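Holo prediction. Input below; ligand is adenosine-5'-diphosphate.
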Amino acid sequence: MAGAFRAAYGTGPAGIWAAPGRVNLIGEHTDYNDGFVMPLALPHTTLVAARPRTDGVLRLRSAHPAGASAPVRGKGRTVELAVEDLRPAAVGGWAGYPAGVVWAMRQAKLPVGGADLHYDSTVPVGAGLSSSAALEVATAFALNDLYGLGLAPQSLAQLAQRAENAFVGVPCGIMDQTAAACCTQGHALFLDTRDLTRRQVPFDLAGEGLRLLVVDTRVKHELGDGAYAARRAGCERGARALGVHALRDVGYTQLPAALARLDGDPVAQRYVRHVVTENRRVQDVIEHLDAGDTRAIGPVLSAGHASLRDDFEISCAELDLAVDSALAAGALGARMTGGGFGGSAIVLVEEADAEAVGKAVTESFAAAGHTAPRIFTAVPGQGAHRVE
Ligand code: ADP
Ligand code: MG
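Structure of the complex:
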């Protein structure tokens, strides 16, 4: 990293920072309903080598192939911008994510100026593992240190979310950035997205002879963006009709009454049922983990998948096949994770069955004529931090 930085910018970096990708264990599409989520950080990280500049110039480069997607301004792959000129939606391609963080910080009246930034990453991009949040949060941590802002990880996550929402124009919730900023090794992170209360929940899979596999289906269906907006709108419609601020306010025991009130709107009914039962599933998972019964979360994960597939309608053939073939091969539980319409699934398996389950999933994809999935083990990793 330091060598690549020096080759690009002529001098060495002032430091190197890392931020991880994530998988969400349970709590899907709840974060824009003020609900509960439970992500864990992956060992895969985005690294940024950085150095401050005094002339208000922001230079950005990424060694990752995704970094070639930027409209080239400046030398070679380097994107060059003036921090004074940053405006929402004005920076296309990948550079919008880090530039958006600088913009969000300056909007918040934080004393952030120019910088030279060089990125590299092992987070699969566009696989639902949140490479975008890793990119933003690595940037936020670097700028926090370079400019002595003294902000806490959760505040940096909120600035990163603002960058993605208001600058890049992606209406994501707070989960991904909080996961990248606040997760700790060996834990899943319980987050109440209403008041941002967090709890690190021990999640020692290896110690219990278990494994969490990630199945990256390698597909991302175009439907995704519009469908996400439609789900958000449907949830808001449901909340309005029920007279609550957000669907978080509908308790599990109130669900039958709520569904009855939404009688004329079957779509909102299904979305509400997903969100309310999903919040309950997060609490169920925590109870099982607190009781030391990790295996018991398997069926909860699988129920979450059925809800996303049937009620929220955001699964797809590849995700369903990953889940079904894993369960048929003996997995304890499986579900799609992330936004849906492609991306990744997670599979909880006995350590001894992991290889056979992975093989079964791969074979089912081949038999269906799908691109071979990428399968790896998720070991709960560390949140963003300074590396050097
Ligand atoms: P996900 O967050 O699930 O990986 P997104 O579509 O939200 O998928 O974000 C992917 C985008 O983030 C890429 O298209 C690219 O613009 C940007 N990106 C992520 N990581 C990098 C990286 N290391 N270098 C350059 N761009 C990146
Ligand atoms: Mg993303």
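The radius of gyration is 21 Å. That is the main takeaway for now.
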